[in-house]
Amino acid sequence: MTGSNESFPPGFLWGTATAAYQIEGAAQEDGRTPSIWDTFSRTPGKVLGGDTGDVAVDHYHRMRDDVRMMADLGLSAYRFSVSWPRVQPTGRGPAVERGLDFYRALTDELLAAGITPSLTLYHWDLPQELEDAGGWPARDTAYRFAEYAGLVARALGDRVELWTTLNEPWCSAFLGYGSGVHAPGRTDPVAALRAAHHLNLGHGLAVQALRAALPGRARIGVSLNPSAVRPLTGSAGDLDAQRRIDALANRVFTGPMLTGAYPSDLLADTAHLTDWSFVQEGDAATAGRPLDFLGINYYAPAVVSAADAPSPAGANRDGHGVSDHSPWPGSEAVTFHQPPGELTAMDWSVDPTGLYDLLMRYAREAPGVALMITENGAAYDDKPAADGTVHDPDRIRYLHGHLAAVRRAMLDGADVRGYFLWSLMDNFEWSYGYSKRFGAVYVDYETQRRTPKSSAQWYGRVARTGVLPYPMLEE
Fold first, then answer.
1. Which of 28, 121, 38, 35 is nearest to 81 (CA)?
2. Which keywords does UniProt give here (predicted)?
3. pLDDT value at 1 more than 60
4. Would you list the domain boundaries of the chain?
5. What is the predicted pLDDT for the residue at 313?
């Protein structure tokens, strides 16, 4: 049965996503200088096992083979990020052509293979020199980001039509400067709020720089990781907890980016920490420059309650790592709960309804702006069988459920243009090092051998046909 409910429209983008620091390696080649993740991962105790991205999966040297692998799978799009310190090592001044040449070659290979390149300017690898000058809590970083955006646009604008400014600025601000579980590892709630604002400002300035440098056919967006926040109960306290976390997880970015203003309840919730005087006149309007698409990264919903609500043992968590410091300035006391049901290897719940809810929410809140799922996927404990094959039926079930949720949202009116699986292949998973495998392709980290998993073959079939198998085919 292949009825309309299981079919995606022609032209829908079927892709995978990666990030420069997680896959490229070549950390000290061709003029690249350290990013905050180079520094953080080399700091004892910050990354599990002492792992770093120095080699990662060596994509810098294996790029052509990796593109050929994507083409063999039948993918129609690839979302990658540019390494800022590879292109502009100090975060200032002219670009390093050797760094740009890698991305020129990558986009040429993709286009030759019939794969649409989707470029992300910032996936967390701030040049260390800019962090030393204040990082994202410093206003100047927003202007440096816009300058960098213009450099990349002028170099690749003739090849790339899909442009994303920031990936998950919530993580950059609140995990990097609030809880400290991500680079640069600072734990200052006011710095986290300042960083969030300057990421908003940098996004808006970068949109301006991209519009000035790119041809009219280019499409510009941002990739957020909005949270589907749900209250544990319908009590007033739990509903207020939901509101608080929604403000910090979602509306701190969508307020300026979509409406040109910060939400008043967010300002009130954090007034005891800061008067937000770092927001200058016109900043929020700059952040609200018109977008062509809104990227949504989704993994699992959040269930929250007031601090005094009973919760099961070990449930006071938010899924972002272990820290004595909260990533929720002004709402540190909110309790996070583990939803019942199936979990991934990250201990994240499997719940496609959260993705459906987010798509419908932003279809309402951003009318006329196309939507893209720019990340969605799951980590499982994948292991090769005796014959070398890697079977991952749990991931196939995960993908089937979430793609069905995307199609349901489209049938209900959401303008979704593409889906990017996280991730193309196993890689450096930030503070978890190489302990978690999100890839559709298995990587033997000692030999760098790539082996497409069952999910890669299944997803490739969906990409080639635009149809979800019904009933679901498990490999």
1. 121
2. Carbohydrate metabolism, Cellulose degradation, Glycosidase, Hydrolase, Polysaccharide degradation
3. no
4. 4-465
5. 38
